[in-house]
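Bit of a strange request maybe. I'm writing a small parser for C-alpha cell strings and I need a real example to test against, not something I typed by hand. Could someone generate the C-alpha cells for this chain?
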Amino acid sequence: MARIDAFLKLGLAQGCSDVHLAVGVPPMLRMNGDLLPIKFRELSDTELEAYILEILTSKQKERLHSGRDLDFSYVAEEGGRFRVNVFRKVTGIGAVLRHIPSNVPTLEQLNSPEVLRDFCDYHQGMVLVTGATGTGKSTTLAAMINYLNENRSLNIISLEDPIEFVHPSKHSQVIQREVGTHVQSFADGVRSAMREDPDVILVGEMRDAETIMMAMTAAETGHLVFGTLHTTGAVKTIDRVIDALPGELREQTKAFLSMSLKAVVTQVLVKTPDGRGRRAIQEILVSNRAIAKLITTDQTHQIPSQLQTGKDVGMQLMDQALLDAIQRKEIDPDDAYRFANDKRKFHRFVTDTDMVPALEISGGQG
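Reply from user aminoacidic:
Good idea to test on real output. This should exercise your parser:
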C-alpha cells in the first residue's frame, strides 16, 4: 500500500472533500469548506516527494521532473477514487487530492432545481455550468449526465482532465475519454467526437479559444454540448466567451450565443445551518428572445433584470437563490452573506454581527 493512502483513508473517515499535502506543514483536510491540519509532523520536501512518486507512472514522473504540473486520477488500494493535482512551488512539491464518490449523484440527491432536468431534454445547443474552482461543477454535470444515461438512449461522449465520476452505460452509451491519455487536448477531443456519431458532448473545461470554437461548432451542428468555465455569474460567462475569441469573430460569437446558448448555471457551495455539509446554490439563466437581443446589441449588463423576472421559467439571480435557501433554513445565513452581491439584503439574517462591517470594509464580495 502506498504511504499516501494512510492520509487518504483518514480523510475519507472524516468525510473530507480534499487532502492537501505541502512542504513545511502537516497534511491538511478540507472539511465543509474549512482547511484543517491533522495531527502529524510537518512534511519535508524529500519525504513528500517520496510519498507522491510512489503513486506515479514512469511517464508521470518524467513530466513532473521536467517541471510541469500533473493532473490524474488515483484509486487508493483500500478503495476511494481521487482527482490529483501535483505541482511545484517555492518550498518544494505539493499535491491536492480530491475525493470522487464511487456512486454518481442524482439531481434529486443534490436538491437541484427542476429546470436542470429540462436542460437535459434539449436536443442541441450549449449548456454551461460555471463557478470558481471547488464549487461542485463536476458533480452537477455528473448528475446531469447520469440523468441522461438513465432516461434517454443516446451516445454521450465525455472529455475530462482527468476522469472523475465513472459512468457505467445504462439506457445510453457513455464514452469517457481523458485528456493526455486518450486525446491530446479538449479541442482535439471535440474534433474527434464529432466524427463518432455523438448526441451529447461534455467538455470538462473550455479553457482556451480553440476549445470554445470547437464546442460552438458542435453545438451549432445539432449536438447538445455541456461545458464548464471558471466564471462567477451569467453575465461574466457570456462576456468571457465573447472576449476569449479573436476580435474578428466577435459578431459571429454573439450570433452563436444568441441562437445556440441554451442556459448558464453558476454555482457556489454554502454551508448548511449545522455546519456539517455544504449545499450548491445556483444562479440560472435560461435563454430567450430578450436575452438573445441583449447579447447581440452589447447590452449584457441588462441580463440580471431578465433573470430577476424570469422565475416562471426557472431563472434566478444568485442573491434570490441565497435568500430563498436562507428562508427555507437550508443554508447558514452567515456563510451565505459572503457570497451575496447586494449584501444589504442579507444584513437582517446575519447572526455574527461582526461580519457585516468587516466584510463591507474589505469590499464585501466574499
